[in-house]
Amino acid sequence: MIEPLYTSAFLMGLIGSGHCLAMCGGIASSLQLATDKRQSIIYSFAYNTGRACSYMLAGALVAGISSQFAKQNTFFSVTLSFVAAIFMLLVGVYIMRIGPTLQWLEKIGKTLIWQHIVKLNKYLMPVDSTAKALGYGALWGWLPCGLVYSALTWAMTSPSAFDGAIVMLCFALGTFPAMITLGLAAQKLNSVINHPWTRIVLGSIIIWYGMYLLIIATDKLVH
Questions:
Q1: Residue 204: which of 87, 100, 93, 98 has the closest Cα?
Q2: Cα–Cα distance between 132 and 112 in angstroms, integer?
Q3: If I label 133, which of 83, 106, 143, 215 is the partner at 20 to 30 A Cα–Cα?
Q4: Taking Cα atoms as reference points, which of 182, 181, 166 lies closest to residue 52?
């Protein structure tokens, strides 16, 4: 049986693809402008693989650290469950486009992290090799993104660094279809995943799972 958290992470990545295209679509498109079509596909895949690796590294770090504290402190573990559940509800609301619930996270990430990391861009430009495309993707994997940060709160509830990395891998894989199939195929995919009913259904699934996690966390706190 597939872990529900993995499924939720994948769905969030899939339905959030439109957000990914808005933030990274220009970069991904430029990588596909290479004169050789085969090379452009390789660059695009390398970029997205690098991005996924950064997500997995972040997931492994937060899960590895949090799992050590959770083993020693039950209250800490329950608190993480509450935080993950709340962020799952926020993501559901975001996906359904009821409100901009995650923008404040991106502002914090831009101030604390991104303004320092983005300076490394100069060492990777121009992107004229597979290695640079991989590195460029790994760098832009740290771009402030409310969806990524929300997925990381889910990864924090994982029992080990490995499980945390898998949660983030599932999220990354959800973004792959739109990010790799840019152009006409991506437009058709976005027309489906951005359809109001699609967002309502998928957003509702994540909200219901968030409520389920809240119930479990509350039960742990009571007992």
A1: 93
A2: 25
A3: 106
A4: 166
Could you tell me the two tokens for 4? Answer: 């529900």
Distance CA 154, CA 163 (A): 10
Query: SS3 string of the chain?
Result: CCCHHHHHHHHHHHHCHHHHHHHHHHHHHHHCCCCCHHHHHHHHHHHHHHHHHHHHHHHHHHHHHHHHHHHHCHHHHHHHHHHHHHHHHHHHHHHCCCCCCCHHHHHHHHHHHHHHHHHHHHHCCCCCCHHHHHHHHHHHCCCCCHHHHHHHHHHCCCCCHHHHHHHHHHHHHHHHHHHHCCCHHHHHHHHHHCCHHHHHHHHHHHHHHHHHHHHHHHHHHHC
Give the pLDDT score at 1: 42
Note if the bond before 177 is cis, omega within 30 degrees: no
- When mean pLDDT is compared across 60-64, 177-181, 186-190, the lowest value belongs to 186-190
Number of Cβ atoms within 10 Å of the Cβ of 166 = 21
Q: How far is CA 217 from CA 17, 152, 160, 203, 222, in A?
A: 30, 18, 19, 21, 9
- Encode pLDDT of 59-81 as tens digits: 999 999 988 887 777 777 788 88
